Amino acid sequence: MSWIQHLRSAQEFLKVGDEVEAVILTLDRDERKMSLGIKQLKEDPWEAIDAKYPIGSKHNAKVRNFTNFGVFVELEEGVDGLIHISDLSWTKKVKHPSEFTQVGAPIDVIVLDIDKENRRLSLGHKQLEENPWDVFEEKYTVGSIHTGKITELMEKGAVVALDENVEGFATPKHLVKEDGTQAQQGEELPFKVIEFNKDSKRIILSHSRTYEDPQREEKKAAAKKAAPRAKKDEAPKIENVAASTTLGDIDVLAELKAKMEKGE
Question: 0.85 cut: is pTM over it?
Fold first, then answer.
């Protein structure tokens, strides 16, 4: 009836009383039966899919529906594709596609792979832009401090929104403020980067380290300053008694010198 694979019933394509053109597929004169086809009136779009939708090509599609793992889109009648949830955004952690788009909405895509046998295209959306994590690697270095806003609080910690729509994560012990209270959702605070992983796209942050670390350095400096120092003008004490010279030794040396001068 149609090259479209996701038709749930004939009513989605035809209504009772509609006039359509059809192609005779089989004819059984004895049984007085024939089978007809409608989609055969049009060329199968998958026959030339490699030429029309080559890998790396960019297209505009329409969101058909979505599941927990991705978004199903339609590029044209009979040509569907899937955008995996991990290929929607470089920076935003999308828990469900409904957070990112909606059914019927247009969306730009790029072809990542072609499965001609199963008539399915693997598509990407984030790949339309350069990977910003190459830049983040230089900006969010370990030890650097940035202003972030707590956008979500969970039992294991908090999601912190930084610049460029990138998100970081802070565990509860790193959300303790200098006055001892716990940081709350919606607060904007300075955060120190304590871990950066480009491959897993993970930034671990700490607010408490922004004031704890300077305090540690101040204590070290104070302790070093308070440590006693040896005076420069203090002469070292001679511990080796055998190496010291006595008055008796001096008299013997003087007598020996006098005899040598007389030629004795």
Answer: no
